[in-house]
Design a protein that fits this description.
This is Penicillin acylase family protein. InterPro entries: Ntn_hydrolases_N (IPR029055), Pen/GL7ACA/AHL_acylase (IPR014395), Penicillin_amidase_A-knob (IPR043147), Penicillin_amidase_dom1 (IPR023343), Penicillin_amidase_N_B-knob (IPR043146), S45 (IPR002692). Keywords: Calcium, Hydrolase, Metal-binding, Zymogen. With 817 residues, the protein is of the alpha+beta class. Helix content is 32%, strand content 18%. The strands form 7 sheets. The chain has an 11-stranded mixed β-sheet, covered by helices on one side. Strands 6, 7, 24, 27, 28, 29 and 30 form a 7-stranded antiparallel β-sheet that branches. About 1% of the residues have low confidence.
């Protein structure tokens, strides 16, 4: 009997050991091996960092030529001091991986279409389909071309090689207990870093900022409603706001010209296309530079305020790089070398999205179902069919065939989104071309003056950005930089006929003819994603979501500014004034002034709106009522654009308000779901009642008698895995179309102010997160409270090692092996 009980006990013990050390599927995810995960010696407990954890250490690293000193300040910002560039970039890669390895790898897997390798195909193959979409957009194809360009230049080649080597040095030093938390949670281990991954990071940013095209949606609009409607509802230029550069016709160059082409496809080629996958909300940004004539100390000041999808770990990683010929500080993209936004001893720079159309879609005619040939200039041309293998976790590999044409990859065909009727559309994207943006940042990091800044930008192709600049020499400047095709009227607005090479990009705007200026009389430069130039700029700019409100508010404040201090620029970055509401709410209120049978809730709403000061501050109730009204109004106004199987885009915010005011009887304001014929007034009244009802439903769900704006907006910063426990709920003001452009999930990702003083540059910054990617670290979300309350940290910009004696010291020695 004892033997039987022993055997039973042994079997149960072995089963338990097996169970605790095995990964098990659960729904659409997997449970990690609980034995390892819960182990106090190597499991997730090892990721909980003590508050007094030391940041000092001495390590031996192979690949170094000389000793490296990394001083870590109280914000966990590393200040790297080396005696040569090779060691500088190896150390940058090493220390970035130390704090952000999982984020770096997860984001490059996402860019490359490899997430299903980590977490499986997902419910209804959602993850696998995301991966397929990434590969069908040619993300790796574009990254390969970027890497080829990097390796043709000795400086960028050295940087990416040593940065990669540094990451791998860190990876090789890890045991299971040292792995970042997410690796343990998802039960996998990091792979070797490659130079291609660095390029993927840059192309991933291009995807975030430069895929907001509407070619398919606009083609559908053209087919459904006609050219007259397109011109009425989607004008190329809305004639509002201050352009980034207003030269009033003083363009001193002879523009490249091309023969005109038809404004759209011939009717027989226009086919209604189905529903496109939903895209992220439009991302925006602000930047400006103020001349010394407008500052209290006579030194130029620069403001950096890029707005992106906010996430944890944070998008940016702050760092200082110091070596012979370089002393630069700012933020990097974890996974790519250099400082992307920042300053050095002489210059500072900041970027915003230029909103230019650098994407075209082409309708492809294949010879037969094999897709091995397609029609181009009356000839059948061979396709390049690439087999894409997806090593899906927990199931057999999936094989997809992606067809590449003269234009690029065929993203949509009869095997991908065929149910949505998105067939045989090839994707032409500027980021597929060979370019070396890494060299731009290499040179900007070392720039001494405006001339150096201009030369650095000559190497920059995309995503197109507005580069603001300020220097200790007294200059301020702005340049809209990218590789822009020369467009003919309406070109790029609709899906193009892929059977003719004449419909392709025939020429590019020369760098020296891009929109730019230096030291304007008004004493500042600024951009906020608005239209780049005045109407006299001799190149056609395809319609896009150019911003209409933030830019005007910024320029109003900057124009009135004198004796400015850094605090003034900080206040402007956090400005919650709602110019859109100031221009629209008085008219809206006029339309509901005679509304009958008001409920008590509607009376309260009107009182709140009438007394509102137009600021979307945290506690504002007027802001909540206005935004609820607006959110009800837009879909109600453009109900004709809600088609179940067809992708369509609504007119812009500004143009919608303009039409409501100026053409109140427009037929488009008649609601399809009612028998009555509505005009702008009836529409605004219905939307008002819907907005108030939504507020009341929210109050009931929250058991609240008030509706403060920050509570109603319900913002959060989400972990990349969308795990609530690793995400942060926040209370913050602002919203779309406001300088503090913080919506529910998007907002200011890095706020920096630099004062370009000759005696020594000073800088202040904050961002919504922290330097560490480890949720168990106090540095994971250290900056959030400062960020939400408009407070900034002074940056410790070190000129020498001697200034760092009080800081923690990570010492890297060349390995003796």
């Amino acid at each position: 009997m004892k033997i039987i009980w022993f055997l039973v006990s042994l079997v149960l013990t072995l089963a338990l050991i097996f169970a605790l050390n095995s990964s098990w599927p659960l729904g659409g995810t997997r449970i990690p091996p609980l034995g390892k995960f819960l182990s106090p010696f190597e499991g997730f407990w090892q990721n909980i960092e003590a508050k007094d954890q030391t940041l000092s250490a001495e390590l031996n690293i192979s690949g170094l030529d000389e000793e490296v000193s990394i001083y870590v300040d109280s914000l966990l910002i590393p200040h790297i001091f080396t005696n040569n560039e090779a060691d500088l970039y190896l150390a940058q890669g090493f220390v970035t991986a130390k704090h952000r390895l999982w984020q770096m790898e997860f984001q490059t897997h996402a860019a490359a279409g490899r997430i299903s390798e980590i977490i499986g195909a997902g419910k209804d193959n959602a993850v696998l389909n995301y991966d397929r979409g990434q590969r069908r957009l040619g993300m790796v194809y574009g990254a390969q071309h970027a890497l080829e360009a990097m390796e043709k230049d000795a400086n960028s080649k050295l940087a990416v090689e040593k940065y990669t080597e540094g990451i791998n040095q860190y990876i090789q030093s890890l045991s299971y207990k040292d792995l970042p938390f997410e690796y343990k949670l998802l039960d996998y281990a990091p792979e070797q870093w490659t130079k291609l991954k660095c390029a993927l990071l840059l192309r991933s940013m291009a995807q975030t900022l430069n895929m907001g095209d509407k070619d398919i949606e606009m083609t559908n609009t053209l087919k459904l409603f006609g050219k007259e409607t397109v011109d009425l509802l989607f004008p190329d230029m809305e004639n509002v706001g201050d352009p980034i550069v207003d030269n009033t016709g003083q363009w001193n160059f002879n523009p490249v010209t091309l023969e005109s082409v038809p404004s759209a496809l011939p009717n027989e080629l226009i086919k209604l296309s189905g529903k496109l996958p939903p895209s992220d909300p439009t991302t925006g940004s602000n930047n400006w530079a103020v001349s010394g004539s407008k500052t209290a100390n006579g030194a130029p000041m620069l403001s950096s305020d890029p707005h992106l999808n906010l996430s944890l770990p944070s998008i940016w990683y702050a760092i200082q790089l110091h070596a012979p010929g370089i002393n630069v500080m700012g933020v990097s993209l974890p996974g790519a070398p250099h400082v992307i936004i920042g300053f050095n001893d002489s210059v500072s720079w900041a970027v915003t999205n230029a909103q230019r159309d650098l994407v075209d879609w082409y309708s492809i005619e294949f010879r037969d179902s094999t897709k091995s040939e397609y029609l181009l200039d009356s000839n059948w041309v061979k396709s390049n069919i690439v087999e894409e293998r997806f090593n899906v976790r927990g199931q057999n590999a999936f094989i997809d065939n992606v067809v590449y044409t003269h234009w690029g990859p065929v993203t949509y065909d009869d095997t991908y989104h065929a149910e949505d009727n998105l067939k045989h559309h090839a994707f032409r994207w500027i980021a597929h071309d060979e370019s070396n943006e890494s060299l731009t940042f290499y040179k900007l990091n070392r720039a001494n003056n405006h001339q150096d800044y201009m030369e650095a930008l000559n190497h920059y192709s995309g995503p197109a950005q507005n580069f603001a600049f300020a220097s200790t020499g007294g200059d301020v400047a702005m340049r809209v930089q990218g590789k822009f095709p020369v467009r003919r009227k309406d070109e790029g607005k609709f899906v193009l006929d892929g059977r003719k090479t004449s419909n392709g990009w025939q020429a590019f705007i020369p760098n020296e003819q891009n929109v730019m200026y230096k030291n304007p009389e008004r004493g500042f430069v600024s951009s906020a994603n608005q239209y780049p130039a005045d109407a006299t700029y001799p190149y056609y700019i395809t319609a896009s979501n150019f911003e209409a409100y933030r830019n005007r508010r910024i320029n109003q404040v900057l124009s009135a500014l004198s004796n400015a201090k850094p605090e003034d620029l900080m206040n402007l970055q956090n400005d919650n004034y709602n110019l859109k509401a100031a221009e629209s709410l008085p008219y809206f209120l006029e339309q509901v002034a005679d509304l009958a049978n008001l409920t008590e809730a509607e009376k309260v709403a009107l009182d709140k709106l009438k007394s509102w000061d137009y600021f979307n501050n945290v506690d504002s109730e007027g802001a909540s009522y206005y935004e609820a009204w607006w959110d009800a109004l837009m879909p109600m106004t453009w109900d004709e654009f809600r088609k179940e199987n067809v992708s369509l885009s609504r007119p812009t915010t500004y143009h919608t308000i303009k039409l409501l005011k100026e053409q109140p009887e427009l037929a488009w304001f008649d609601r399809q779901e009612t028998p009555e014929k509505e005009n702008a007034k009836a529409l605004l009244q219905a939307a008002f009642r819907k907005g108030v009802a939504d507020i009341e439903a929210w109050k009931k769900s929250k058991n609240s008698t008030t509706v403060p704006w920050a509570e109603f907006k319900d913002s959060y910063i989400g972990h990349l895995l969308r795990i609530d426990a690793l995400s942060i709920k926040i209370k913050h003001g602002g919203n779309h179309d406001i300088v503090n452009a913080h919506s529910r999930t998007h907002g200011p990702s890095w706020r920096m102010i630099t004062s370009m003083e000759k005696e020594g540059v000073k800088a202040w910054a904050t961002y919504p997160g922290g330097q560490s990617g480890n949720p168990g670290s106090k540095y994971y979300d250290q900056f959030v409270s400062h960020w939400t309350s408009a407070r900034y940290y002074p940056l410790a910009f070190l000129r020498s090692k001697e200034e760092a004696t009080s800081l923690n010291h990570l010492h890297l020695n060349p390995s003796k092996k």
